[in-house]
């Protein structure tokens, strides 16, 4: 069966590793990105060089019009989108809650939660057979991210609720919805929080004594999307080194 996947924020970090892995497993991949075209094109070039199928697509996934246009573009190119990875996410400078302003909180919720809602909706409303969704949450939804980004943690908590509720709404249709909760993963996101070396600082305090790689997260996402996980829905894989 043909497999078509959209990976939001597929151009860097966890999304890029997931794009590459899924392409190697035979998926036709839409590598979504917000602004950095070069990085998206690089991921796509590497996939095509390896014999896979992919194309880059610029869209702000917090914008409904752009999300609809993205799904239409993918459908025209490959057919029905059979799998979806809601991976795009942002955070801002480490701060206490009392120093987070309303605009920042709304921006984080819009990018991290509304994108998940809008992409899930566009995915479900398509004609044709659909298989599975994976939402990229965070260990922050359990831990709360105090003194860092409670806004971000709250957005991931909301994603977890969407994952659970939607898995139950879609179970009868045979569409599975699961989540992954990464912990400290070596990506550029930590620079946005104001501490590029955050993972290295925290690594010794983690039970497994190290940070994780984007490729390790990608493996779990790929498994949850795959037929090997055919009886798994409404659940979460913790990728936080034991924390
Ligand atoms: P990253 O390296 O900062 O990459 C973020 C990706 O999201 C980029 O491809 C970026 O595109 C894209 N993006 C951001 N806003 C977007 C928007 N509005 N529309 C479309 N694309 C958008 O992030 P990462 O560390 O790989 O994180 C990926 C996911 O894992 C996020 O949901 C994050 O919350 C979650 N996570 C990460 C960690 C960690 O330790 N890294 C831990 C737990 C959870 P551009 O390049 O064009 O900006």
Please describe the structure with a list of short key phrases separated by commas or semicolons.
9 helices; alpha/beta; 7 strands; single chain; binds NADP nicotinamide-adenine-dinucleotide phosphate; 243 residues; Rossmann fold
Would you kindly provide a written description of the structure presented here, covering whatever features stand out?
Belongs to the short-chain dehydrogenases/reductases (SDR) family. By secondary structure, this protein is of the alpha/beta class. It has a single domain (4-239), classed as NAD(P)-binding Rossmann-like Domain (Rossmann fold, 3-Layer(aba) Sandwich), CATH 3.40.50. Helices cover 45% and strands 15% of the residues. The protein has a seven-stranded parallel β-sheet, sandwiched between helices. The longest helix is centred in the middle third of the chain and has 23 residues, at 102-124. The protein is globular, with a radius of gyration of 17 Å. The mean pLDDT is 98. The structure holds NADP nicotinamide-adenine-dinucleotide phosphate (NAP).
């Amino acid at each position: 069966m043909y497999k078509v996947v959209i990976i939001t924020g597929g151009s860097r970090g966890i999304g890029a590793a997931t794009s590459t892995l899924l392409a190697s497993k035979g998926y036709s991949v839409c590598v979504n990105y917000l602004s950095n075209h070069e990085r998206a094109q690089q991921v796509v070039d590497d996939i095509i060089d390896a014999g896979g199928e992919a194309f880059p697509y610029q869209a702000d996934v917090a914008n409904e019009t752009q999300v609809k246009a993205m799904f239409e573009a993918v459908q025209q190119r490959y057919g029905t989108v059979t799998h979806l990875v809601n991976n795009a996410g942002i955070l801002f400078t480490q701060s206490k809650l009392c120093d987070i302003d309303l605009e920042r909180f709304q921006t984080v919720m819009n990018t991290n939660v509304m994108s998940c809602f809008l992409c899930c909706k566009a995915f479900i409303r398509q004609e044709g057979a659909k298989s599975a969704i994976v939402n990229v949450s965070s260990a922050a939804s359990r831990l709360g991210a105090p003194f860092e980004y409670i806004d971000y943690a709250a957005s991931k908590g909301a994603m977890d609720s969407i994952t659970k509720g939607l898995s139950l709404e879609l179970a009868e249709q045979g569409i599975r919805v699961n989540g992954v909760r990464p912990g400290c993963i070596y990506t550029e996101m930590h620079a946005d929080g104001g501490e590029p070396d955050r993972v290295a600082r925290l690594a010794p305090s983690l039970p497994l004594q190290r940070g994780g790689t984007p490729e390790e997260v990608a493996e779990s996402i790929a498994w949850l999307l795959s037929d090997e996980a055919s009886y798994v829905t409404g659940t979460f894989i913790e990728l936080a080194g034991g924390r």
